[in-house]
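Just scan my protein:

. . .
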Amino acid sequence: MSRHVLARASLLLVAVLGLAGCSSAPSRTLPEITFADQSPIALDVERIEIVQRYEPTFADPFVDHLFPRPPAAVIRRWAEERLSARGATGTATLIIQDASVTEEVLARRPGLQGLVRIEQSERYEARLAVRLEVEKPTSSGFAEILTQRSITAPENASLADREQIWFELTENAIDDLDAKFEQEVRQGLSRYIVR
């Protein structure tokens, strides 16, 4: 093999290694967020409908459309697993009013401290809101639940790290929503719960 060919091969190898060093770490395989292990809330209605009124904007500062488990899809699955129709008449409608996540870029410390320390560079805030409306031939009722939760990401987070952070934010926010929802429904809509 000539020196010319060896030199080209060496340059190609350096270029490939350089590009590999610049790429983001591959995404992790994240588990599903499920509530199948919990007993459903049985409602005295014939059917349950899920309506998504929240639509992602796909524009800054919203980032929920980038999530490996988008909050709107997680809320839909949560509703399917946590609500059960056990009546002969009536409809329960679960409305997804908000499932947004915003990103705020955080200020860095000035001077040398900002250069030598790994700082939190973004703050993500999830806002989940649902409304449950129950319509029976002789009565109706509703409950509204809103929950907010935030988390920060360090400046050196890889794509895989960031996806894990987003996953944890979504999981914790839906857990908060579930706890508030069950409390609110059992207090305000108890007459529609089948025991």
